[in-house]
## 1
Amino acid sequence: MPDPVKPPLRRLPGRPRSGRSLTAAALLCCAVVYAGGFSDGPVSAVVTAVAWAGWFVAYFMLRAAVGEAADLPDDRLDERELALRNRSYVSAYRLLGAAVAVSLVVAIVDDAVGDLVVSWYNVLSALLLLAGFLPSAVVVGGQPHPEADAD
Amino acid sequence: MLRKNNDLLVCPIKRGPDRPLYNRLAVLRAERGMSRADLAERVDVNPQTVGSLERGDYFPSLDLALRLAEVFGLPVEAVFSRVPFTPLSSQVYRRDDRHA
């Protein structure tokens, strides 16, 4: 007998065709925002703003493409999806840790050399953007191809 | 095998490449004219998970394995095994040979 209190499982889509493209686009936007911190002037600010906008578009498209699997509560996912979602956060945490470590090195070099032009606003923004879309990106990689599940 | 068809294996317990888990889900499903969606609904998972189980991309928990066995009315070792299953046609043919 189905549990009347338990909410139904969320039917997640298979691996979207655009998943890798959206992940690459979001990553590119993060890189542009990060790089924007190393230059000055109005052009850099405009490019950074465009990258921000592009990231938001890619993020919400990626999130919709995986059916919000990275953000759903536990009782809306089956055990495989739950394991995939948990693994996505572990992988995202490790990747973000690596990015923070790189930023730390840059900060140390900046402090030692003193000649680098670094906008830490851009650097921190890029790290936050990375943290935002990485779980969905890892989920995209773990979803099976829709053709593989055709009966 | 921990990586198959470029998909990372996701399983509750890491067994390693030397201890795979084989299953007869596709055969049992076909015998009963059951689609992946039908089976998925009966064991309360998404159809993609049934596909992942059949391909060996995912190893089920004990609870899920027992639920799957209950659907087919078989013991769990008739559905999942550490060694590759012998094709049913070979088993039937060998049995007919003994009676010939």
Note: The two ends of chain B are 41 Å apart (CA to CA).
## 2
Amino acid sequence: MSGIMRGDAASTATDKLTVALRAYGVPEGREEPPILSGTSRRGPSRWNLIFDTETTADPVLRLRFGAYQLRYGDELRDTGLFYDPAALSEADVGVLKNYTDAKHLKLLTNAEFVEKIFLRAAYHWQATTIGFNLPFDLSRIAYLHSDARGKMRGGFSFHMAPEGMKAPRIRIKHLSRKASLIDMYGSDQKLSRGMRKRKIYGPRRRPAFVDVHTLAHAVLGRSSTLGALANTLETPHRKLGTDEHGKPLTPEYLDYALQDVQVTWECFTELRRRFELHGLERLPIHHVYSEASIGKGYLRQMGIRPWREVQRDFPDELVGIVMGTYFGGRAEVHLRRVIRQVAYCDFTSMYPTVCSLMGLWRLVIADGVDWHDATDATQRLLDSVTLADLQHPAFWEQLHVLVEVDADADILPVRARYGREPQYTIGLNYLTSADTLWFTLADCIASKLLTGKATKIARAIAFTSRKVQRNLNSARIASTDYTIDPTKDDFYRRIVERRQHVKALAKKATDEEAERLKAEEAALKTIANSIAYGVYVQLNVDEEEKPVAVRCHPAKGRPFLVDMNQVEEPGEFFHPLLGTLITGGARLMLAIAERLILDQGLDWAFCDTDSMAIAKPEGMIDKEFFARVESIRNWFAPLNPYDMPLDMFKLEDANYRIGGGGKNMQPLFCFAVSSKRYVLFNVDDQGRPIIRKASAHGLGHLLPPYGDAVPLEEIGVARWQHDVWYRIVLAALAGRSQQVQLRDLANVDQPAVGRYAATTPPLLAWFEKMNEGRPYAEQIRPFNFMLMFQADRIAAIEELHGPAGDALRDKTRGKVEPYLPRAVAGYRTDPAEAASQCFDRETGRPVPRQLLKTYAQALAQFHLRPEAKFLDADFLDSGPTRRRHVEVHAIVYIGKEANRWEEQSYIGLDEEAEIEYGIIPEQRKSIINQAREAGNIHGQRALAKAAELSLQQVSAILRGQAAPTNETLAKLIKGMAELDRKARVEQQETDTAERRLREMVAELGFQVAAVQLEIDAGNFSRMMSGKRRLTPAIVRKLRDQAFLRNRKRRNFAR
Amino acid sequence: MTTYKKHGTSKHRFCLICGCTDTMILQDCQLAGNRDHIRRFVLCRECSDRLASRSPTRTENQAGIPQTMSEIALRRETRKQKAFDRLGTDHPICACCLSSDRRFMESHHLEGEKFGETLINLCRNCHRILSDGQQDHPPQFGEPPITEERIGHWLLGLADLLELLVTKLKEFGNYLIDKARGAAAVPAETTP
């Protein structure tokens, strides 16, 4: 038996967990800020300043020289070089002077450049400052920096004049690797006091900053280096190659620097042209931070007013319920660490399709939403719904419903800390809860499809759209004649139709026309992706200087006040109802696919948001397999909302022969480790794998040990990542999937290193000790790159206790957990050199190189990563995973899960980044009672240890003499869960030991078994009769005995 | 400055900047501007070159050498941009007389400073005339002024502006008529 219906988890709970739900937090006493659609300020002037800096090649990355262009519109007016006299030798300055004289360029010192060009252009002329990776360049030319305050808190404030002198400052707040907020504010006043007092000034201008890297990501939907970007955009000039960074200056190197500025400008103009294709008059280019900016630009262009603006009286309590039902996309592995032939399918434009089927555009353009109780109707619908009903598009329009569920072994999304994972993950698991919980109706239908039984509903709220907003305008899409009338058309449907139409035209068009059509298609893809989901669940996290009282609106229970250091600010088009309905609909699509797969007698290897790898069962012939896959794919055909024949659940390109033009199928195999960690490959005639698609999950944070980091086309990973997957597949094909040979890959014996920039004050603080006593110019500064290493636990034990084996065997010493340094180093081009200079970021002490993990060590368990949210998915497990059966222990309310997610993926988990509102007051009492019970069963000391609290603290709480904070309560819950888990494991081990004991007695006889186990015969007898529990020592002995016997058997077999 | 023409010989010509009268180095210089509003100057070659190098509107050097801006040009641009920032537009035009030189443009509160923030751009002369007229408006009696009082002052300010515009239109109309009359009278006098 295979699939989710297998196993006994459905009947009995396997885990008692604290479940996390999203809540809606509103800062207390803070007025709703006025929502400004657009800006009343004038845009920047026509002046553009483009500049780039070149630095030393040491960890300080100090400015050596830079190049700039000053343009009025597109017209070049001024160009030159600037340099830091203290960072260059006399010979270098001579080279600069000769070069600038010969080329009739200006030569300025950095101070002169900042004062005469940069501040004039950026501040007084309100020019647009353009650069590639602009925060880095701006930080190079600054005199000093401090922590930014106000709305830019969490960022840096750069002083653009020597200490003690007044000058405008630049503030930069890092948002992600792709975008930063940059602004400038002045200390001097442009207007006289009288004019300011009498308000004699018109609409003010603000300087603008455009990071070409950010713009490229927003417009093209992918990040790249300047060189790769210039190649993609086919600019007239291309980036020159050089290896002269940090070396004495040469005219060629200066050519390189000047060319960089020119290429940056050309990339900017081409990106601007492509951005202008959208025709978004209300979105200035310097306000484009991501694809979502463009999506929001279209909504504004059509005159759509944000939901929070049109319906300000929507109750916060209801928003809390809506947020409680919000879960992201579904990503799971089912057939783990086994090679299976698959058909890899994905849903065509999943989110726009779901939006279109569910008629969600009406909610976007409505003057708000109304809601009413629909408990009886929803229960009837759930009781009667069948797979066939879901094939009718009209059915999907009934899914605007949130449901309060009395969960009893229903398969629903569960967010929890599974296993020993420190962060929350979402798994579709069996759920049983004493208290009711809220979900979308789509999730309940998915549960019925997968369990065969309807969920029991306590309450249901149906939402309907109000009348359409007034004064909406038609929008021209991508500056073509194709217009969409928001009042008559379904925007999602029309945009996908147009995209497919343009795609088809591009295939037949001539080269020049095809180029134009491809650009249009890319623009349409950007629009579809951005408006279909992200903008509705946008929550920006503001770091507060001191704790702020936030009223948390939970899905269950009354709102409560909690002090928070981080406050979530909803984005302009925040509409969580849309967000939860869209993702719920997408999960339902996957559940339908899963049901169909199981009904067809097939299996599935993994799924990821909008795709699923359908696995061929052993022994089935290809023809039969593909016929069944075809029948599954055809099932979705009636759900096509578009006015053209489209494959709704299509076979991806990887299923077809390379160069076959999407016609000839070739057997595709899959090896999936865990969620989002998989590889798809063909096998050639010699039995060698040909990788078709791989994921960089778990590899992306490391620098390439060899080769470059540019992804291989179509496969989607870098060369070295491809090689790692290749070795994993080779090992699996050879039948030894646990033993992957990576040692012979280049440089894998070098310390594994990741690179990140010092983008926030706390990250820069790691270098405080290193910077101590150094002049500012020689300090590690904001946005400097830094390298991160991983400490090796075994090496740390050896360092502490001598050879690891001895330490581990020695009970007393083995208990002492070694301190694992968190090694970082300033950036160096040679990571090996950086490794010799690295230090512990907590203590500042140097970290010896032998303590650092090598690439081979860091990747040693990459192919074994457990899928903690499921059973049978531990390190060495392979084959089908099983759903857990989660019994709700407590509910904790949390905020945005992905807060500083990117930073954490590079530098490790940071608990402070988590936004946790805590537990509702009503539940606190019951948790303390549960803790008392746990204390009685396991002992208060054990509870305190598991909860990482002091015994006194736990004792005071249990006696009712101390009121625990939310944080302490969370620790108590964690401790109870840990004790519970341990107890279950112990029980399992005891059960196994008892079984072994009986086998042993049956095999050897009572007396011999007692002698072998060195147990007194009387005690042994009592254990056998169940009068005495097995001691841990006996359980251990039995385990060792079983291990020895198995080893003997294996040796004998050999 | 885009074009230079060779100067013909003339006794009364001299360089507008340095007063030089050497006819060998004098040349006609034409300032690029509106097509129907070209101004010509006589300059010596030296002054002409110096002026050309200062010009912030110069585009491309003949020899293809990259352009640079002098300190004077940078400062002038700063003054210009500050004025634009103060006036709230890159194209300031006097609402009454249509003059457009940013150096004597000012912002005027249409209803008076105390009654609102409607700003219009005026040249100094027109600004003085309208501000003088505002002193004859009724004094403020509400603190702060109520909406009706604000609207009343706004309308009075608008009326002043329109009144000035009417005066200007009349002046301009009469000027054109006088000019036409003069033009018509000249041939009559010169006709033998």
Note: The first strand of chain B starts at residue 3 and ends at 6.
